[in-house]
Amino acid sequence: DPAPASPLLQNLNPEQLAAVTLPAGNALILAGAGSGKTRVLTTRIAWLLQTGQVSPGGILAVTFTNKAAKEMMARLTAMLPINTRGMWIGTFHGLCNRFLRAHWKLAGLPSTFQILDTQDQLSAIKRLMKQFNVDEERFPAKQTQWFIAGAKEDGLRPRDVEVRSDDDRKKVELYQLYEDQCQREGVVDFGELMLRSYELLRDNDPVREHYQRRFRHILIDEFQDTNRLQYAWIKMLAGHTVEGRFVPGDNSVLAVGDDDQSIYAFRGARVGNMADFVGEFGVAHQIKLEQNYRSYSNILDSANALISHNKKRLGKNLRTDQGPGEPVRVYESTSDFAEAQWMVEEMRQLVRDGIERKEMAVLYRSNAQSRVIETALFNAAVPYRVYGGLRFFERAEIKHALAYLRLLENKDDDTSFLRVVNFPPRGIGARSIEQLQDAARAAGRSLHDAVAAVGGKAGANLSAFVAKIDVLREQTQGLSLREIIELVLQHSGLIEHYRSEREGADRIENLEELVNAAESFVTQEGFGRDAVAMPVDELRQSPASQGLDPNLPITDEPLVPDAETGETMSPLAAFLTHAALESGDNQAQAGQDAVQLMTVHAAKGLEFDCVFITGMEEGLFPHENSLSDHESLEEERRLMYVAITRARQRLYLSHSQTRMLHGQTRYNVKSRFFDELPEAALKWLTPKNQGFAPSAFGYGAGYASTRGGSYGSKESFASPPVPPQKAAPSHGLRSGMQVFHNKFGEGTVLALEGSGDDARAQVNFPRHGIKWLALSVAKLTPV
Ligand code: ATP
Ligand code: MG
């Protein structure tokens, strides 16, 4: 082959090179983990820009997280001396927010609209249900929330939802009431960001045509996890529908994905979008990448073997030129506490081996698992950082501070009003608040505007609160974002309140961190008051953007004033949006060398030198909700595939015999996924399958007690091949049997594992769900 002309194209394999330099047109890259999909996507953008095929303003790229978007921006600026601001690179939510900020009026939103995160959304729904006396037993608020989110993900407004029962009717009614409430309060939830911007594109021809002309190249990473609405949104930007048939436009759409990493079906992701895309966009180029550059082969073989147990697959191969590397290490502990201790020890060794802490990740299936790990790390003074879970911006004290700030921006934000009207406590009781809510409803106004209607002492307290907010709003005029936040923290009484609390020091620290977050937001993101005006002219002149509608504002800057009124978003409003959308990664700690903790879901697309996957137990991973259903079990397996493929050099899998979860000790057996990994790639740090029938090996009786037995150093332990368990059960239980447990009541035995002291039963209790029980502890009597 001739040497690639541009340095950009060096270090690409032939398939990657082909993908990066594809001619205009729609294309799909379907390839396994670590094969360079994201790298190809980023390099393609750089190549398109460098060869002058498109200007920055003609690029729309969708990434899976804000972190990924930032990384992509950083890599692009490193590759090319360009101004990346004109590019639209971000998550679906981030991009829709940007779009709606530019066209808020057309979208029927107030210019100051704020974003409800999932927590706020739930409390808004609860409030509504209480107001309309909806039975929470029959319609749990969480379920209503899922219903609404699900409808929006399918692009359905209340009137579009098919009603098949009285329950449906009630839910649709709640959906409508919720919509009205959000509109009145000037807030939008995550689903609404997407749906609103889709509808605007659908219903407004000039806007749609403008963006269709503008975005010559649309690139989407992690395409396997797009939902119906996101796909429809892409179609709006890249074609039009004639008599129900989609006709692609002349933009180029590059979709990049891996069906084996589809892990958001539970949230409406549709892996079928890939097949639809190939058909509807008449995809001419499908590229496969089969070389994995991330992991040593022990890790990759494990991932490949595991995922081969899934039936529903499009089928791909992955190979690596790297050697086997270290074996995958497996550890069994007696308790979750011991598991965390072991991990801390192992990390110490890794540090001694010269591995940076930020190259170590601890992954878990559910957020609840992180607490024990955090405690162990904290006690050992190992710096760590938790992604996801309770994100920085979701902590109670931060939410309180943000609520005050949001009320400055939008007095009608009732959710924020209710959060802080009596926090810190100022003698406003539940009764007064109900009174206020009634008055507001009767007058069709916000809570803020209705306080005058409440009399007596309660009324006076409410008025004092509103006056405080209004005065703060006055006082903060003309201040910098940092000054605004400092003022609000002091005058809201939050700092004083936490100072008097026993464990308030941490919270105060977090509040101070909020000031830092705002500071770096202003400096790093360029949202500050002196943010430069964008090179709109440059955009208009570039050949690729010829034909843009001159009457529409080109919105490359969140701070670009409204074309008609000159209205611009305040730094505070921009920061509040950032707080709702951002994963809350603490900027100040970003540089610190800290161990990374996150759920497997949050780890998608990332890579680390060392990965610990913890809690590898039945009921935990795979999750108990998935055990009875084949489809969900396959999703759990994909999740495990994602987890394994995050590791470059070393992978650790651990499980524990007992675990405290949700205030209960659970006795768990190790995950079935262990049986699906290739024995040759594994190294058991603790004896495998304790309690197996030793006679099957012909070792003789002396070998019977495995637990606590001496195996010499763990390094020298080699696992013998292990036969399937055939020991006769002594507990007399069979699967399918009805049993009684004195705490959980009656249940059905689903499965049995192990024998003797290690015998365990999986039982489905109608009232408490599916549990694994150790039969030496749990008393189960057949009924
Ligand atoms: P995932 O499915 O997990 O998102 P991916 O397919 O997006 O993975 P990348 O993250 O793009 O994979 O790449 C995996 C790693 O391999 C990265 O560190 C990347 O820099 C490296 N890599 C990709 N292609 C090459 C190459 N041709 N030569 C050397 N390293 C490469
Ligand atoms: Mg990727």
Describe the structure.
With 783 residues, the chain is α/β, with parallel strands linked by helices. The protein folds into 5 domains: 7-104 and 194-291, Rossmann fold, CATH 3.40.50.300; 114-185, Arc Repressor Mutant, subunit A (Orthogonal Bundle), CATH 1.10.10.160; 298-389 and 592-686, P-loop containing nucleotide triphosphate hydrolases (Rossmann fold, 3-Layer(aba) Sandwich); 393-525, PCRA, domain 4, CATH 1.10.486.10; 738-782. Helix content is 39%, strand content 15%. The strands form 5 sheets. Strands 11, 12, 13, 14, 15, 16, 17 and 18 form an 8-stranded mixed sheet that branches. A 6-stranded parallel sheet has the order 3-2-6-9-1-10, with helices on both faces. Strands 22-21-20-19-23 form a 5-stranded antiparallel sheet, with no helix packed on it. α15 (396-409) crosses α16 and α15 crosses α19 (456-476). It starts with 13 loop residues before the first helix and ends with a strand. Bound molecules: adenosine-5'-triphosphate and magnesium ion. Adenosine-5'-triphosphate binds at residues 11-13, 16, 31, 33-39, 258, 261, 293-294, 605, 607, 645.
